[in-house]
């Protein structure tokens, strides 16, 4: 069996096992383990490679960023900072056509800078923003589409769990991945706001909404009290990493500590909620560790099968251009996005394509940003758009169906694709900040 056949069969086997109900990292690990066993007819070799994969994942110092940033995001969410930043943004945008939608995008971008989770963003803003938009007669599809679209900012604006997972799979610096995500994240947020403005101007019926009658600006004191905690947290975490004063692990620890202090000062943290945050952090950390371990043995299996060399040979023989490889890569991610979640897509496609990208002298940090945004589009596409399911579950509103959420999110998925093409053509947008 050729390396290409092994690679294709392994991907198909993983997808089949996932749809049969097997936990994704288990499916990834089982396929890799059995493949090595069958290829080399050596059970002991499979066991040894599994031990090495587990050891490499657990002993990695930078893995400490996962529980620290996860805990910080949960604390911030429980402290109600997402609702605060939304109120501030909404006071400034309310009179603009589609303004509450723009406020949602802006608040989501700021909230993403401390949570790193699209699921948390989708849950918070589905409860805060959608009822406000419906109150002003916005089109329900537009309302849920804005929340779904802007929720993905949590996966690209640092600190992001997906950037951490990619950094482990591709063996890149977590700090560099975080810095490289800043400009693309801001660019995506700006593109969303521009798209909402264009919708309001050219297809106002789709946006809907009526002018706010009780509109008034917040006082400076009110704006400061609601934004200062979140801004100080972002400054400590990202400022610490950017200036080099803090490593990503230290920034995560500092952010978690400051977030906890803010929650305590605001009276939003009880012993019960603190314990809940700790337990949830443990669950999320364990699942991410499991994912990274499974990805590690999968990439070793592909290497053992000789797939990297085979792909390099095919590239040389067919003289495939950089753009052709990118088209194939993005199409594969869009296809897998209809079947799998973001982390699973990253774990499957990155080991397959890294051997093609590295010899071309391209930045693996830039490639990580492309990968995360490409995989994120799947969060908005049926049948497995996780953000869409979270929004529907959070709303519990019979007026809005799951179909409405998916249809509303499609324009924002298209905007993401446009931004992705822009980032592929101009890598400096991602990695310029590193130089």
Describe the protein's topology.
Layout (H helix, E strand, L loop, with lengths): L2 H17 L4 H17 L2 H17 L5 H14 L2 H13 L5 H17 L2 H18 L4 H12 L9 H9 L4 H29 L1 H4 L12 H24 L4 H18 L5 H35 L1 H12 L3 H16 L4 H16 L6 H13 L9 H10 L6 H24 L2 H4 L4
Helix pairs in contact: 1-2, 2-3, 2-14, 3-14, 4-13, 4-14, 5-6, 5-12, 6-7, 6-8, 6-10, 6-12, 7-8, 7-19, 8-20, 9-10, 9-14, 9-17, 9-18, 10-18, 10-20, 12-13, 14-17, 15-17, 16-17, 16-18, 17-18, 19-20
Subcellular location: Cell inner membrane
Protein name: TRAP transporter large permease protein
Subunit structure: The complex comprises the extracytoplasmic solute receptor protein and the two transmembrane proteins.
Indicate the low-confidence ranges by residue numbers.
none
Shape type: globular
| SSE class | mainly alpha
Percent strand equals under 5%
Number of helices: 21
How many domains, in number, for the residues? 1
Average pLDDT, to the nearest integer? 81
Q: Strand tally, please?
A: 0
Rg measurement, Å:
22 Å
**Gap between N and C termini, in Å?**
45 Å
The ordered string of helix (H) and strand (E) elements is HHHHHHHHHHHHHHHHHHHHH
Oligomeric state of this protein: single chain
Q: Major β-sheet, in short?
A: none
- Share in helix: over 70%
Protein name: TRAP transporter large permease protein
Family: Belongs to the TRAP transporter large permease family.
Keywords: Cell inner membrane, Cell membrane, Membrane, Transmembrane, Transmembrane helix, Transport
Subcellular location: Cell inner membrane
